[in-house]
Amino acid sequence: MSQAHAGLAPTRTTLDNGVVVLTKETRTTPAVTINLAVRAGSICDSADAPGATYLLSRVIDRGTTTRSADKISEELDNRGIALTIGVTRHVFSIVCTCLAEDFDAVFALLGDMLVSPTVPESELATRKREVITGIRQDEDNPAVRASETLMALLYPDHPYGRRAKGTVEIVEALTRARLVRLHAERFAPSGLTAVVVGDMAVSRAADAAARVFGAWRTPPPVPIGIAHVAEATTRRRVVIPMMNKAQADIAYGFTAIARADPAYYAFWLMNNALGQYAIGGRLGDSIRERQGMAYYVSSSLDANVVEGPLVVRAGVSPQNVDRAIASIDEELVRLTRDGLTEKEFAESRQYLIGSMPRRLETNSDITQFLQTLEFFGLGLDYDVRLPALLGAVTLDETLAAARRILDPERATVVIAGPYDQP
Amino acid sequence: MAVPVTQAALGNGLKVLVQEEHTAPLASVWCWYKAGSKLERPGLTGVSHWVEHMNFKGTANIPRDQVKGIIEQVGGSWNGYTWIDQTTYFETATRDALDRMLFIEAERMANCLYHPDDCESERTVIISELQGGENDPDQFLDQEVTATAFKAHAYRHPTIGWLSDLQTMTREDLYGYYRRHYIPNNATLVIVGDVDTAEALRRVEHYFENIPAGELPARMRTVEPEQTGERRVTIRREGTTAYLKAAYHAPAVGDPGFFPLLALDAVLTGAKGLNLWSSFRLPPAQRRARLYRALVERGLASSVGGALLPTEEPFLYAISVTATEGTPLASVEAALLEELDRVTRDAVTDAELAKAKQQLKARLVFDNDSVTNIAHQLGYYETIAGVDTYRTLDRSIAAVTLDEVAAAASTFKTSNRTLGWFDPVTA
Q1: pLDDT number for residue A3
Q2: Given a cut of 80, is residue A6 above it in pLDDT?
Q3: What is the secondary structure of B90-126 as a DSSP string?
Q4: Which of B94, B283, B284 sits opposite A354 (nearest CB)?
Q5: Where are the alpha helices (DSSP H) in B209-256?
Q6: Pair A139, A274 in one domain
Q7: What is the CATH number of the domain that holds B191?
Q8: More confidently predicted of B66 and B17
Q9: How close does chain B come to A108, measured CA to CA in Å?
Q10: Measured between CB atoms, which of A77, A97, A133 is closest to B241?
Q11: How far apart (Å, rounded) are the C-alpha atoms in residues B356 and B337?
Q12: Cα separation of B15 and B32, whole Å?
C-alpha cells in the first residue's frame, strides 16, 4: 500500500500566532479525532500547589465566556460525544472523537474551552468533590501508591516527583482566582498543537483552526526551567503496608534518560527486550512464565524533556514479594553482565520497526503519534525514518544502555499491599 | 455498515467471515469459540479462562518458547479474552502475515500441548490475576452483586472462577475442556483487512479443513427463575471510598426488549458503544443524562455508569455509582431510586429518545474505527446471536418506539433488583 512506503505524510501548517496545525485525512470511518495539546502540563504547578493544573483540567470544559456549562453539555450530548481531558508532566490536552459531519462545530467548541474558560464557582465546587474522591480512591490503590511513591523518591523536589492530582488539603484550598491566573499565564497560542485526523479534507481542518484560533493573542508564557535529575547512589526500599488488600504491587525503578539523548533508540530496544516483548520480555519470561508469580510484570521507559524513569512493575502475592524482587535483581544483573542475545536484539528491533503500521491503526492512535512527534521535534517523516534509526543501533549500544542505569545496587524499590516486612 | 461480509462454512463446520477493508495495509484475524464461563459446572469455575491462558503455551508445531513472539516478530499484536458466552483470540499485523495468523489459530484449535508443568505455573498466575481484581473494591462489589442477582444460571459465577476451584482443578480438567470445546464446528473465524476474499478463503481452507469436527458440547439448560423480591449485599471492609451498584435482570441481545432498554440506558447514563473490546476507550456522552444530573451534578457521586452488555442469554443491566467523599450510600441510593421511579412513572420524552438514538448512532461509528475492532464485532455477534444482529444494529436502534421504552422501564421494579453497597470502614 502507498501508506506503507510513503509514510503517514501529515500536513503541517503554522498560524501567525504560533499555533501548529497537523492534519491527516483517513477513510476508515466517517469520524474525526481532534487532539488539542498545550504545553501547560503539571510542571506548571507551583511547588506549594501541586494539583492546580489537574483541577483546571476538570473544570476547563464547564463554562466559557460565550457558553454556559449546560450549553456545553447539550452540545456534547446531542452529538453523542464526550471529552477526554488529560494532564501529563508537560502537556494539557483536550481530545474528542466526533462524526465527520459534526467536525466544524465540535472543533469550535473545543477551541472555545481552551481559550476562554470562565471556571464558574459552582462548577469548581462540584468538580473539587470529584477530584477529592479520586484522590481518596488512589490512596486505596496499591498500584497507584507504589508508583507515586517511587516517583517521589526518584524525583525529590522536582516536578516529575509530584502527585498530579495533589492532596485533599491543597485541592480544597485552590481558588477560582488561582485557576484563572494559571490559565492566563500558561495557555498561549505559541504552545498549542492542534491535530486533526479523520474523514475530512486537510483544508477544512486548517480553515477551522484559523477560524477558531487565528485571533488568539496571548504572549508566550515565561519558560519553566526543569532541573536535571541526579541518579540514586544507593539502593532504597520502602514498604507501604495495605493489609486490607489481596495482592502487593511492586514498583522498582531508576531515573533514565531524556528523549533527546542520542542513546534513546538503544534504550528503547533494550527496554523492549527487558520488559515488553512477548508479554513482559525477559522479566515476563522469568516471573510470569517460568515462576508463575505474577499476572502482570513489565518495564516501561518514559524518556522525557529531562531524564524520565525506567520502571519495572509487578503484582504478586504477599508471600512472593521477596522472590519477585530477587528475580528482577537477577535479570538486571544478567542483562548488564551479558547483554541481550543476538536473537533477542533482532526480534525486538524487528518488532519495533514492523509494528509501525499497526500502531497507527486508528485516528486516535495517529493523533497521539503526531502530538509526540511535534512535542519532541522528531520531524514529519519520523515514521519513515524510524526503521533506519532503530537499524543503526548495535548490540553493544544496548549493553551500554543497560549498564548505564540498571544497577540493582542503585535501584529504588517500593512495595504496596498486604506486606509489612520493613 | 454497507461493506459486504462474505460468509462461508468449511466441511468440518467452521464458520468463516471475511470483510475487505483496504484503508490500511493490515489484517486482523479473530477466532471465536462458544466456550464462555456459563458452561462451567461447580468445581470447574474459571476453566474457560484458564484454558485460554494454556492456549498461549505452545503447540505441536509452535515451540513453547516461540509462541509469544511469533506474531510480534512481524510487528503484530495479539491477545485473547474470555467472558460469560465466549472465548476469543486475535492477531493484527500487516496483511502479508495473514498466513502466519491463520497458522497460529489452526494450531490453537487442534494442537495445544498442556504440559503439566505449564498448567501448574499458570495456576498461580491466574490466582494472581484474581487477587489483583480483588484489590479493586468496585470490581469486587460487581462480582458479589452478580453472584447475588443470579441463583440458578451459571452467569452467577465470575469468569475468573472461585479461588477453591482454581486451587484444585487438574491438568485433565483443563485438557478435557479444551478438547470438548475447541472444535471447528464450535468456532467462527473472522478476517478483516487488506485482503482478497477469495484468496483469504483458500488460505483458511488450507489451514483448517483437515481439523476434524467433534461432538458439540451440551448446552446448559438452566433458565434463571424470575426474581421475586429485592436482594441486597453489603460489604463492609477497610477502604476509602463508597460504591453502590443496582443490578436488574435484563434481556439478551436477541430479545425484543434489548434495544428499548439500550435507549433507556442512554437516557439515564449516556450512550456508549456496543464493542466490548474498544468502547470503554471513549467516555459516555452523559452530561445531560438523567442519572448524571441527579447524582454527579448534585455532588452526591463522582461517577455514574450504566451497562447493558450484549449477551446470548438474559444477563443484567447494572448501574454503578461512586459516592463522593463524605456522602452516605443511603443518600446516593435514595436519589438513584427516585430517578428510576420517575422514569418508570413518567416515561421518557420524544426529544430524549431522539437524542439517545443520535448518540447511539455516533457510537456505532466510533466502534468500528479499525480492522481489529470491525473483526471483533463480526465475531462477537456471530457467536452470541448471529452476524445479522450486528449488521442491523443501526436499524434496530432506529426502530425503537416511545412505547417500547416505557415498557422497558418495567425492568426497574423493586422485585427485579439487587442492590450492592461497598461501605468502607476506616482501619
Answers
A1: 40
A2: no
A3: EEEEEGGGHHHHHHHHHHHHH-B---HHHHHHHHHHH
A4: B94
A5: none
A6: no
A7: 3.30.830.10
A8: B17
A9: 18
A10: A133
A11: 21
A12: 10
Q: Look up the pTM and report it.
A: 0.96
Confidence of residue A1 (pLDDT cuts 50, 70, 90): very low
- Residues contacting residue A188 through CB under 8 Å, at least 6 positions apart: A18, A38, A216, A218, A219, A220, A221
| Residue B135 located in a structural domain | yes
Give the pLDDT mean for A391-400: 98
* B302 in contact with chain A, both atoms CB, cutoff 8 A: yes
Which B residues, 122 through 181, put their C-beta within 8 Å of a C-beta on chain A?
A: 122-132, 134-137
Give the whole-angstrom CA distance, residue B340 versus residue B264.
11
Mean pLDDT of B157-166: 98
The mean pLDDT value of chain B amounts to 96
Kindly determine whether residue A140 and residue B73, on different chains, have CB atoms separated by under 8 Å.
Answer: no
How many domains does one find in chain A?
Answer: 2
State the pLDDT at residue B427. 73
Question: Is there a contact between B132 and A31 if contact means CB atoms under 8 Å apart?
Answer: no
The answer to whether B109 and B184 are in contact (CB under 8 A) is yes
pLDDT digits 0-9 by tens, A81-97: 999 999 999 999 999 99
φ, ψ of residue A83 to 5 degrees: the values are -100, 150
CA distance B53 to chain A (A): 11
Tens of pLDDT along B289-311?
A: 999 999 999 999 999 999 999 99
Based on the fold, state whether residues B204 and B235 are members of the same structural domain: no
Distance CA A5, CA A11 (A): 17
Q: How many CA atoms lie within 13 A of B4 on its CB side?
A: 5
Chain A hits for B287, CB-CB cut-off 8 Å, are: 72-73, 76-77, 82
Residue B254 in domain: yes
DSSP H helical segments within B114-159, as ranges? 116-134, 137-149
From the CA of A228, how many Å to the nearest CA of chain B?
Answer: 34
Of A97, A316, A351, the CB nearest to B75: A351
pLDDT exceeding 90 applies to what percent of chain B?
A: 95
CB contacts < 8 A, A to B, total: 211
- B1 pLDDT more than 60: no
Residues A129 and A276 in one domain: no
Nearest CB among B270, B299, B361 relative to A126 is that of B299
Distance CA B300, CA A267 (A): 47
| CA-wise closest residue to A308 among A299, A316, A317 | A299
Does B369 sit within 8 Å of A363, measured CB to CB? yes
Q: Best interface-test mutation with B: which of A34, A62, A77 has the largest number of B CBs within 10 A?
A: A77
- The stretch A316-323 carries a mean pLDDT of 95
User: Bridge-partner residues for A415, per DSSP?
Assistant: A239, A250
Asked if B426 has any chain A CB less than 8 Å from its own CB, the reply is no
Best probe of the A interface among B54, B130, B135, by most A CBs < 10 A, is B135
Q: At A273, which helix (H) or strand (E)?
A: helix A264-275
Chain B CB contacts of A294 under 8 Å are: 125, 128
Closest CA to B61 of B109, B111, B21: B111
Range of the domain at B291: 231-425
pLDDT at B2: 61
Shared domain check, A340 and A373: yes
Domain that holds residue A292: 236-417
Q: Which amino acid is at A414?
A: V
Q: Are residues A48 and A180 located together in one domain of the fold?
A: yes
